[in-house]
Amino acid sequence: MRKLFITVALGAALAGCGKHEAPPQNAADASFEAKLQEQLLDAKPGSVIEIPAGHYALKRGLSLRTDGVTIRGAGMDKTVLSFKGQLVGPEGLLVNASDFTIANLAIEDTKGDALKINQGKNITIHGVRIEWTDGPKTTNGAYGLYPVKTQNVLVEDSVVIGASDAGIYVGQSNNIVVRRNRAERNVAGIEIENSVNADVYENTATDNTGGILVFNMPNLSQAGHATRVFRNKVFANNTGNFAAKGAAVASVPAGSGMVVNSNDKVEIFDNDIAD
Fold first, then answer.
1. Taking the CB of residue 254, how many other CB atoms lie within 10 A of it?
2. Which residues contact 54 (CB under 8 A, 6 or more apart)?
């Protein structure tokens, strides 16, 4: 089900033409983008990359391959990385590293997945907003917050809006906490797939097609089990399904509060599920 190949964006950004041409990038944004990518490429273990408040238009996907790095903004509504005019790279930020923290910023309107973290350990996502600002559309990126094949994952106090597959998705991972987040207007608000030992609690899932999903899918690297879903508010998840044709979540019917598919040792308790 999940696309696990890694794309490294290389080459110059090519300007389009016609009425759908991406807006031009001003000199300040181009300078910021070059500096940020340089910081990511030159980062050493222990580096903290501070991004000040501002709205920054980026043309290229970003990548990080160094362990022990923190990326920190001034707040999820103050530091905004906008990929609305993205020309290069499918992700907003692709991380292949451990001991990684990202906090207090927003990633908007990526061409593909917003934040993908692949095969890392000790991952913290705190206070991050992911949003496709034109509302639910099949052409939106599939995944918002997307740790896959990771261990020791914390996703907290974050917001994801408008993903065409799953807003918060943790797949083929171990030892997971997803807490105090808000997922709205996604196909799947929160999805735990083929993962072991996940606690999903004190989240709000509303206005999605399906609120919270716990899935096992075949032919992946591990089977999932032992997920607990508790003290969540799951209501009004009635948005029509806008997933791409053929995606597994395309079969989730609007009006689904929680869906458990082929997954063992799942505990669901003390949730408010309504409307």
1. 14
2. 32, 78, 79, 80
Rounded to whole angstroms, how far apart are CA atoms 253 and 43? Answer: 44
Per-residue pLDDT of the chain (275 residues; tens, 9 = 90+): 443 333 333 333 333 333 444 556 687 888 999 999 999 999 999 999 999 999 999 999 999 999 999 999 999 999 999 999 999 988 999 999 999 999 999 999 999 999 999 999 999 999 999 999 999 999 999 999 999 999 999 999 999 999 999 999 999 999 999 999 999 999 999 999 999 999 999 999 999 999 999 999 999 889 999 999 999 999 999 999 999 999 999 999 999 999 999 999 999 999 999 99
At residue 27, the 3 state secondary structure works out as: helix
Query: How far separated are the first and last CA of the chain, in Å rounded?
Result: 29
Q: Are 249 and 255 in contact (CB under 8 A)?
A: no
Beta strands in 132-222 (DSSP E): 143-148, 151-156, 159-161, 166-171, 174-179, 182-184, 188-193, 196-201, 204-206, 210-215
Q: How many residues does the chain have?
A: 275
Asked if residues 189 and 205 have their Cβ atoms less than 8 Å apart, the reply is yes
* Tokens coding 67: 């362990």
Look up the pTM and report it. Answer: 0.90
The secondary element (H helix, E strand) that includes residue 7 is none
